[in-house]
Structures are given as structure tokens and as C-alpha cells.
Amino acid sequence: MSFLDLGGLRRHVQRLAPQDGGPPAATVVLVHGLLTDSLASYYFTLGPALAAAGVEVLMYDQRGHGRTARPATGYRLEHFVDDLAALLDALEVAAPVHLVGNSFGGTVAFGLAVRRPAQVASILAIESEPASRAWAAKLAGILDRAERQLVRESTLAWVAQQRGAHTARLARSAGRLLAQTSLAREVPASRLPTESELRSIGCPVLAVYGTESDLAEQAAWLAGLLPDCRTTLVPGQEHSVLVEAPAKVRALTLSWLREHGVELRAVGLHGVEPHGLGQHGGAVQRTPSDGLLPPGGRELEGSTR
Length: 305
Prior knowledge:
The chain is of the alpha/beta class and 305 residues long. It is built from 12 helices and 8 strands.
């Protein structure tokens, strides 16, 4: 575990070197989602497999999440993009990086590609989308509802009954994050990229959606918006593709990297379960919109298109 002080904020960062001790074939940065998510979601799913394949892996807890400091304000999308850019600068990562973003983490990745196109080799976005007016409106509704409900004991009891004690603890933690910060109001008020800025994203993009997620409806829209984008659907999955189908995500990621010139080593190419954990083991976490609130409309997982 390591910490970096960047811009006055203490940040939790994990850097996994290639397991064989050789030079890294590439650098992959794993960016997690909002509220219940943290770098742990990647540590127990994707990170070790990439390191085993000869890749340098950077994971970090976003502001307010995990072991990173929690300021009361500063939660617009541009602040999260600032954080990612500052991390790459502080670690002196000179070569273009491959970004993997889960949910809101993918939105951050698109933001960096708009701001620093030369620094992004590719984006693999899992159940994610670029920021837009529709995205902001959807997030405003989700976060407002979460802010009101995740402080209620009745809601937390429902989560515990439906999803188990571990997920209920994550929901309680998410409620504290929303109560202690302005995140619920700031994220929807973020500076939004223009359509022309999004169309200028020239790096290759792979967008991964679950077939049962409402976000899957926008796959065609995204492929039409971005100049070099394709989409893939994971059968039977909703929003939590990363933690519910980690073997599929690993296979897609390794294949994607190979396709884009990364010379992966043979070890790790068939999937790695760190320390013997299966797909539901350890600290694997659910994304904020998947099953953490009582039924109240499909908008919690809904497409913005």
C-alpha cells in the first residue's frame, strides 16, 4: 500500500509491477466507479491477471473513496480528471496508457482522452459512457435518491436482506460519503464535453455492457459517436459486469491489449484468481446503481438514450 499527496489531497495508490520481473509491456490504469466502488474491485478481479501477463498496473482510490482523503467539496467530473492527470504526472508515466474504466471510472477515462489525447493509448469502458446532458440528468436522479435513502435504516435492512451483510456495509459507507460531501450535487453540475470534443477522441475504444443492463441500449449510439469504437455485450449480466463476470472481463481486456500492440507474456493469459478467490470472494464490490436501493424504477440502471 502506498500514498501520494497530490494537490493537497492524500491518495491511496497501488502499483503492480509485472510478476516476472521483466520490463512492462505497457501501463494500464484501472479507474473505479462511484460510491460503493474502490480499487479493491480491480484488485480482486483484473489487476493481478494483467501483472501476470507482463503489464504494469496502476490502481487508485478516487477522491472520497476507499483510503483516499475525503474533502467536503470538489466532486465535479473535472476534479476527478484532474486527479488522474496529476497521478500520471507524479509517477512520471511518459508513454501513452491504456485506461480501463468501470461505470463512472469510464466517464473519467473519456474525460482524460478529451483533455490529453496523446496520453491515452486506448479505453476499455465497462458499463460506462462519456459525460453528456443526459448523463448528468440521470446521475442527478440516482444520487439524489441515494443521498436520501442510504441513510435510512429501513433501506439498509432491505439491502442486507436482498444482497447480504457485506453489500449493506458498502451501502452504509456510500450513505456516509453522500452525507459528508457535496458529491450528489457536484457530479451532475460537472463541465460537460461538447459533442465535437467527444468526436475528437481518436484512441481505440471498447465499450462492454451487460445484455440485461439498460445501458446496452446506447451501444449503437456510442459506436456512432466515437470514430474508433466498438461494443460488446456480456450475456446475462446487468450493471455489475466487472465483479459478476471477471473471467470474461479479463479475457476481453487481455485480447484488447494484444490487438493494440501490447506484447503480453504467456503467463496469466488464461485468467488469474488472486490468492484463490473466486468471482465473489474477498472485497469485491458492487457498483452503486446495482441493487443498493429498494425498487423504485429502472432509472437506477437506466440508459440515458
